[in-house]
Write a structure and sequence with these properties.
Layout (H helix, E strand, L loop, with lengths): L2 H22 L15 H6 L4 H17 L7 H23 L9 H25 L2
Amino acid sequence: MVLWGKRWAYAAFCAVMLLYFPARVAFHLHPQPCELVPSLGLALYSLQNYPHIVIFAAFYLLSWVQFRGAGAARFAWAGLATLVMGALVEIAEGLTGQGHCRVRDLVPDSAGALLVALPLALWYRRRLTSVP
């Protein structure tokens, strides 16, 4: 029951994060087409988008905490939540015209999630094997 307050805060954070983009342009939408199929070179180049890596690493950690009851599946659920939020952010950028809607921007989002997921997985595994 204690987690309900945290879950509402998490949901509110997600909503505010997505509403930030249309609010910046006073809800005047200027839809832009999305770049759907990235080349491998551009996808690798997008790994230099360090703000996305850091922001989505933090978002993965927040999501991971929310899926406490899921056991080891919480890693997958947090990863899915991170990718969905990354896709929604790209769509919001494209709808408002203040950024580019690019599928390749999901690469640094995924990298940020992996940077957090790998140490968490090692910690989680170590914690499970050390319990008598």
